[in-house]
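Re: that backbone. Tokens:
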């Protein structure tokens, strides 16, 4: 049976690598919907994927600000109407703006929660209410959600919420045969990590391909046993 996947935060980093692996390696994922905000980089990444894609693969890219609830809801409904059932959802888009707690602006805390917590919830809720049947939901949290990090109050709090929310989704959706996996990667060499640690040498930490490989393993019908070093898995 062919499957359709939706990946948020698909313009770069872990999300883009995940789409690349789905397109090239998966035998049953034939349609991938990519969500990210409009940018030249996103357009270029999509164009490259479309050129490289094996015959029979469908890539649909949509410009969505997942932090805007109205925009997100419309985009999710439109994607469902266009491609039908979304079998695999990867809630990957993430935002952070690290500052000492005295300087956290409530508007920025709200933005962090909108992108990191409310968006994954809203996508799942909107699709379920549309009659969607998920086989797999992967929520990307962070080790910062397990142990809060100094200077990252809103990010750490949002990722702790993702871990907890994933547990509730796992319990409530099990009766529908939906598997809910929450991955908490450690330091990964992406743009988001550069925001958190500009001085760090990216070649000394985990690469986004590794996290994408873990995600791909869960999406594979036979992949259960994985080397998830540096990625905390809750399933
Ligand atoms: N890198 C790490 O060390 C690390 C560790 C643990 C967890 N994570 C998590 O891994 C996930 C992926 O991040 P990454 O490390 O791959 O970072 P990245 O390369 O900076 O990618 C972040 C992605 O999120 C998207 N995004 C951010 N705000 C958005 C918004 N308002 N609407 C739509 N898309 C938005 C970005 O797309 P546009 O900006 O193009 O819209 C981009 O595609 C995040 O959830 C992050 O918290 C990362």
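Recovered sequence:
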């Amino acid at each position: 049976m062919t499957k359709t996947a939706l990946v948020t935060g698909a313009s770069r980093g872990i999300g883009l690598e995940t789409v690349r692996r789905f397109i090239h390696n998966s035998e049953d994922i034939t349609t991938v919907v990519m969500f990210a905000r409009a940018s030249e980089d996103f357009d270029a990444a999509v164009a490259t994927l479309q050129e490289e894609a094996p015959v029979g693969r469908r890539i649909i890219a949509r410009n969505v600000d997942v932090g805007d609830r109205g925009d997100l809801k419309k985009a999710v409904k439109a994607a469902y109407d266009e491609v039908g059932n979304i079998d695999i959802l990867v809630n990957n888009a993430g935002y952070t703006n690290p500052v000492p707690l005295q300087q956290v602006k409530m508007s920025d805390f709200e933005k962090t929660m909108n992108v990191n917590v409310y968006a994954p919830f809203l996508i799942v809720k909107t699709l379920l209410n549309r009659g969607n049947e998920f086989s797999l939901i992967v929520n990307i949290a962070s080790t910062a959600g397990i142990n809060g990090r100094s200077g990252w109050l809103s990010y750490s709090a949002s990722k702790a919420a993702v871990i907890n929310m994933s547990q509730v989704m796992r319990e409530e959706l099990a009766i529908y045969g939906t598997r809910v996996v929450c991955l908490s990667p450690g330091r990964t060499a992406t743009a988001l990590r550069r925001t958190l640690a500009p001085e760090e040498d990216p070649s000394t930490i985990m690469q986004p391909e590794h996290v994408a490989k873990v995600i791909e393993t869960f999406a594979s019908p036979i992949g259960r046993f994985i080397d998830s070093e540096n990625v905390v898995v809750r399933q």
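The chain has one domain: 3-234. The pocket of NAP is lined by residues 9-15, 36-37, 39, 42, 64-67, 92-95, 115, 140, 142, 185, 187-188, 190-193, 208 (CB under 6 Å).
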